[in-house]
Structure formats: C-alpha cells, structure tokens
C-alpha cells in the first residue's frame, strides 16, 4: 500500500486540494484499500467503475466509465479528468494500467495525467520474489549447529510458508520465521505449546513446521480477552492501551481461520496459568478436544515452548516456572521479545531461567531468547 504512495510522489505531479486522484476500477480489493488510505491522507478521491451493477449499487459516490474497449471510453475519460481536475490515476488492473500508461505518455492525448502506481504485474510478482528470497536465506542463512539437524525443506515449501505467514496479522517477523524453521529442524517429537497466539501468525508457522517435520500437536493457549493484556508493566503503557481497542472475539475467529486447515492444532482459550491444569488433564487422556478442531493427540511432554503471552515480568516468570518443567531434555524454550522496547520483563525472566536451569544451548536471534534444555 505505502509503495503506491511513494509512487504518487515519484510520479512527479503534486496533489493539492484542487487536484484529485482517480481510482479505477473501484470494484477491486486493492482499489478499495488504496481509496480508503488516500482519503485518510486527505486526498480528493474519485472512484469509478465500468461494472453497471457496481455503479448502480454505489451510485452516490461511484462514477460510471465505459469499458476501455468501448469507442466512447476516451471521451468519457477526458471529460472526467477535466471535470474533477484529476492529475493522478490509480489502477490495479494490469490491462487498464498498460492502456493508461500509453495514454499518459501520448503527446496527442489532450489531458495530462500520471499513473501513480507500479505495474500490477510487478506488484503481483513481488511477494513471490520475496518469499523465494526468504526461502533461500532460510536454507543457507542461519548459522546454527549442524548437530542433529534435519534436512531443510524445499525452497518451494518454504516460499509457501512465507506467503501464508505474511498474510496473517501479527507481530512475528521474517527473522522469527527463520528461527522457527531452524528450531523445527532440531526438534524432537512432542507437544508444541504456544502461550499467546493472537491472530495465529506464529501458531501458523509452528503448525506448518510441526506438520512437515512430524513433531506433534501444536496447542495454542490464549484467553483472547482484553483483561489479559491490560497490564504488561509500567513501560508498556502504549501496549496496554492498544489491547482495549480490539474485538477479541473477532481476533479469536481470525485465529481459527488462520490455522483452521491444520489437523495438528488445537487450543485452550484460557490464561497460561489456568490452562496448565487443562493441559495436564488432556495429557492424561491422551487427547485434547475442541468444537473447531475435534480431537487431537497430546503426549504431555513439550518439544517446543513458545512464550509470547503477557510480557510483564511476574507473568513471564510464572509461565516459565509452570511450563518449563514440562519441556523434555533436548526441547526448546523460546522467550519472545527478550529484547523489547516496552519493558524488560521478558529479559529479566529469561536471564533468570538461564542462571537457574541446566542448559544445552542458548542464543538470541532477532528479539527472541532461544534455550535448548
Ligand atoms: C504479542 S501477542 C502474540 C503474538 C503472536 N504470537 C503472533 O505471532 O502474532 C500476545 C498474546 O498473548 C495473549 N495473552 C496475554 N496474556 C496471556 C496469558 N496470561 N496467557 C496466554 N496468553 C496471553 C494475548 O491475548 C495476545 O493474543
């Protein structure tokens, strides 16, 4: 999205209060997203479509233009450009983009305008290029011990993981994804526990990796409630407030949709401390059950524990004291946000864990403390 705006500037024409930007055809998802942001930035936005149904439905604010193949198109387009003082045009449609590009460079065309976005063909290709680039770096990049390292997956599979991961809202980044991909290659079989799943971004990565490396069930623990994130420490004032603005039932539904296609996922909708007894019960029954995921096996011994819940020192300390004893020898404990801009709870609790437990390996990757027991 922001790329589009950089291009508005790079295009050279300045949008002022008198000029406007045309978004055409408005009945494409990228057009709607652009129009909303452009309006939020205070730009005057003219929305147009050739779809008769669409323009009839939204007749108040959508202008009708003929199809670009219609001989009447150019005249109607010129009229609209002049009437609305349009200097920039945004279109995510590849054919229309090429047509507009040629009109904008045609000295014989009577009105001057610029196409303000990059070619849709280039835009469509970009996430795939980035995904394959990440896949290569994931296979060759992270310098971890080769001891007991399973073979990497193919670049195509890693590209698939990257594309899907980045479509889910969340705070885990590409560096975290590389880390999880490498940890999965050094992991034993066992339960994968995530404390704090939000929309399911890191949960998706864990489920995907656990599936391809045959690790075990991923159990996501999160109350999906505002109360749990209300107090993450004094320095986290801004983070505490952000949680209040969320519709947590909608976030929970988002989580279900994000990981819903996996057979190796389940969840406990509770805080990490209350979830412990539910996990123990599930382990003794050998399975965990939910309406959305059905019954999933639980072994009671943890191969990866990802701690990314409430970041207040006392909360993480509790998570560590309660859950780390269930991690098997050779298993991994990941403390997210060990390096955090909004407080030092994860660092303090992580450092204490390093001092108190016998540890095989420990390192920091990105902002995450990784400990192999
Ligand atoms: C930083 S977000 C997690 C981000 C997620 N791992 C991702 O990849 O996007 C923190 C999550 O922890 C949850 N949370 C807060 N307190 C918790 C607790 N006591 N137990 C479990 N989850 C908790 C919040 O509801 C929120 O969804």
TrEMBL record:
Keyword Transferase assigned: yes
A Pfam cross-reference name: Methyltransf_24
Organism for this UniProt entry: Pollutimonas bauzanensis
GO biological process, one term: methylation
SUPFAM superfamilies for the chain: S-adenosyl-L-methionine-dependent methyltransferases
Keyword check for Methyltransferase: yes
Name this protein carries in UniProt: Methyltransferase domain-containing protein
Keywords in alphabetical order: Methyltransferase, Transferase
